[in-house]
Amino acid sequence: MKRLSTMLLALILPLVSWSQILHETVNSQKLGEQREIKIQLPRNYEQNSEKRYPVVVVLDGDYLFEPVAGMVDYYSYWKDIPEMIVVGINQDGIRMEDTSYGENSLPADKGAKFFEFIGMELLASLDQKYRTANFRMIVGHDFTANFINYYLLKQEPIFKGYINLSPDLAPEVANWVTDALESSESKKWFYLATSNEDIPALKSGIASFDNQLKGINNKLVSYKFEEFTGESHYSLVGKAIPSAISSMFEIYRPISTKDYNEILLQTSISPTQYLTEKYESIEELYGLKRQISINDFMAVHNAIEKTRNWEAYKDLYKLAFDHYPGTMLGTFFEARHEEETGNPKKAMRMYQNAYGQKSIAFLDADYMLEKADAIKKDFGY
């Protein structure tokens, strides 16, 4: 039995796909030393040789990398967020030096060198070695959370998303970040978290910071603040990471029940236009061109059926032919349009002609022929 199990495992393991964790050493001229990093590549990174991936840089990588990498892998598996390259910078024992700042609240000494190491060496090395997309996030906790905000102060910030986990803020940082976000001319995501049992001095500063950020009047800024109950300075991290990652990719997720009820079921808008604009926004915001998911096509289909907005099928079937050529999807939507707008005989022939096309979702040859037979029976063709 043991031998059989071993043989089965040997057969199964090559078929299993999981994220790749790499351990690398980066030589830094800025720091004058070598730094250890951990990298999680997406599942099927090697197979998708033309695909590019956003990058998440995680400070305090010795303890923050795994929870961030795990949530990225989990959410991307369910397609709630894009697959991403996660990079953790180990800082065990040297995080205070790495994040040091001077009396002017700006990075100083090794902190200034570490700032340049990330911005000028690490990211350039990743871009050269891996297929990176032009969307980057950065994550930090207390001292390193304060540090990540310095990148927002650059004229053209290299990061678009900032996850602040109970930041230990330098005196002027809250004001500088507020001003930077208020005047930002490009999309930014900013997340801030604390808890009712956080370190009192940090909690007070974070509450004041939140009050400033809530006053920002800039549609290009997506800001989310959370205060968790019953969590310590360290345990809040476990709840904040999935919430932060999820919030930064809200539009990327499949059409929600809320959007279905509040948007798609309103006959005053074109459901297909909404679908098109959703994916155009994904490309514009994250720099990722994504195929429209089957689930989103079906959400629009269900909305059309419920509202009886049959003309909306015209644009939908054209979109389906573009995204899923050779499948039954576009044919089904076009046949439904003809069936409900006075051309049942034409619809019947479309259902029949779908026999040679590829099955997709719930659509297969049997289903399409059943639709054709039902029309034939009803109309006596």
Summarize the topology.
Blueprint: H1 2-12, E1 20-28, E2 33-41, E3 53-58, H2 61-77, E4 85-89, H3 95-98, H4 110-129, E5 132-141, H5 143-148, E6 161-165, H6 173-182, E7 188-195, H7 200-214, E8 221-228, H8 236-248, H9 257-264, H10 271-286, H11 294-307, H12 313-323, H13 329-340, H14 344-353, H15 365-379
Parallel strand pairs: 3-4, 3-5, 5-6, 6-7, 7-8
Antiparallel strand pairs: 1-2, 2-4
Helix pairs in contact: 2-8, 12-13, 13-14, 14-15
Molecular structure report:
This protein has 381 residues and is α/β, with parallel strands linked by helices. 48% of the residues lie in helices and 16% in strands. It contains 15 helices and eight strands. It has an eight-stranded mixed β-sheet, with helices on both faces. α5 links the parallel β5 (132-141) and β6. α2 (61-77) packs across α8 (236-248), α12 (313-323) packs antiparallel against α13 and α13 packs antiparallel against α14 (344-353). It is elongated, with a radius of gyration of 26 Å. The termini are far apart.
What are the salient characteristics of this protein?
alpha/beta, eight-stranded mixed β-sheet, 8 strands, 381 residues
Arithmetic mean of pLDDT: 94
Number of helices: 15
Question: Helical content, roughly?
Answer: 40-55%
Q: Let me know the number of strands.
A: 8
| Pattern of helices and strands | HEEEHEHHEHEHEHEHHHHHHHH
Strand portion, in percent?
A: 15-25%
How would you write the strand order of the largest sheet? 1-2-4-3-5-6-7-8
- Let me know the largest β-sheet: 8 strands, mixed
